[in-house]
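Blinded run. Sample ID left blank on purpose so nobody reads anything into the name before looking at the predicted structure. Input follows.
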Amino acid sequence: MLKHTLLIYLRAAVMLTFIGILNGQTVPIPMDHPINDFILRLYTQQKIQGVHSGTRPFTVGQVINALNEISTSDYTISNQEIILLERFKKEFGVHEIQYGIHGPWQSGNLSTSIQNVVNVYDVDFPESRFVTYHDENLILWSDWEEYFSIDFQDSISRSFFIDRVTIAGKFDNNLSFYSRYTLYRIGHKDNYPYPDEYKQGYALIEENTDWLVWDVSEASLRWDNSILNIELSKIPAYWGFSKNHSPILSSNVQPFSFFRASKSYKRIRVQSLLGTLVPFGENPVGIKNEKHIAAHRFEFDLTSKLIISFNEMIIYANRELELGYLLPVNLFWSEEHGLGNRDNVLMSFDAYWKAKPGLSIYGTFFWDELSWFKLFKPWWGNKFIFQSGFHWVPFSNPQLPDFRLEFTASRPWVYTHNDTLLTFTSSEIGLGFPLGPNSQLLYMEMNSWPTYKTHLSMNISLLLKGSGIGSDPNDIYSLRNKDLDDSTSMLMGKVKENLIYEMNFHHRLTELFSITGNCSFNNDEEIFEGRLGLLMNY
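Blinded prediction complete.
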């Protein structure tokens, strides 16, 4: 066993010489990929320090650095963890890229590709990319994904297809680029909800075939240097320590385009972004509405165990770029006052405490037009969200499940405004907490790796959702019932309660194919739904 462990460490050290070329690679990793839970697990165990969970999605470069950090550290890690490290290094390391161009059309690669259809997945064999290119200045690679699933809800079923192509690379060791195109096709049936992958936007229903079709593009161009990292991106944006339900930015919407500048120095991490959003509803003929977001986040390691952050977001519309919102060290709240108090400013504090190895505690306080003089009173304008949670990871064996417990309370009218253009939304979907205003959520989750090929997760959600105006982030608060201005409770109107059970799994079957699936049961509506899918990743 010791000999096996030493060999693995030796192999990992050799791999460092290859994957160093991709350090800083900015390709975002999907938020539902199993690597996210593995990285968060190591982070809670305090085995890695170079990755910070407050800003996601993680990038390929961040994951590579984290895996290298744990491989070369003095921490004691189990054999199961070592094998998982090898799996993810193989998947994200791109260490096999050689000089020249390589693809499946070449005779040797073609035979290997055919074999990989049936070859059982093994961490000892390199993972190939669809197309690669490497010369003195440029490294380029491409992935091709196909996904097919059967979705079912009670006795109704439908087919779901995803076609995805990713192209990424790095030029002259400073300039990283990334582009991903995804086409979704799903059998459209009446009274069957749209899948989670559909986040508004343009969609086409083929009347003759009853297919719902839509597409999504992502892209990023980033320049890294010793002074400042700048990027022009259209990728998901997630801020906050909650795994899935951040009140700040939570990737609920289709990716929006933004300019971002970021800088890390010792204990301080700063980023500022300026982006464009999709306005509410349809524009009248001849009228063009424009909606913008400006945001900045300051993270500070107060101690080696305690991280605090301050966030500000501004929504403004129908005017040119505001340079004051481009300044990352400017206080947006005061700047908005100076510009005539005509925008929507939102603020938050969040904190993350590494209580001990294997236990982390986090919390967020988010406020929107809060009055300090009425802070603890049921005034309608006290629009805030409170969130607290903890993550517990037992020992070092990933076969044992970790446990996450989280509670979020969102008051009525949070994210709303008196102008539909200034609500904290894009394409009518909230940018923050997924349940929106006038809601509460108690969330419990467990994750484990029974084998290095298999990832399991289970969660239980208790949802409380109020009703009436003030429950939707697109609501206009001038239409509220002013008789309730001084008596607005945490949950307003008739409260609907849902208890949802969910299970997800991901199993790496062969070198090219994985099996995925999930199922859920809504206790209130007595609806059982699920998905069983086959993923090809080349």
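Unblinding after everyone has recorded impressions. Confidence is low (pLDDT under 50) at residues 1-24.
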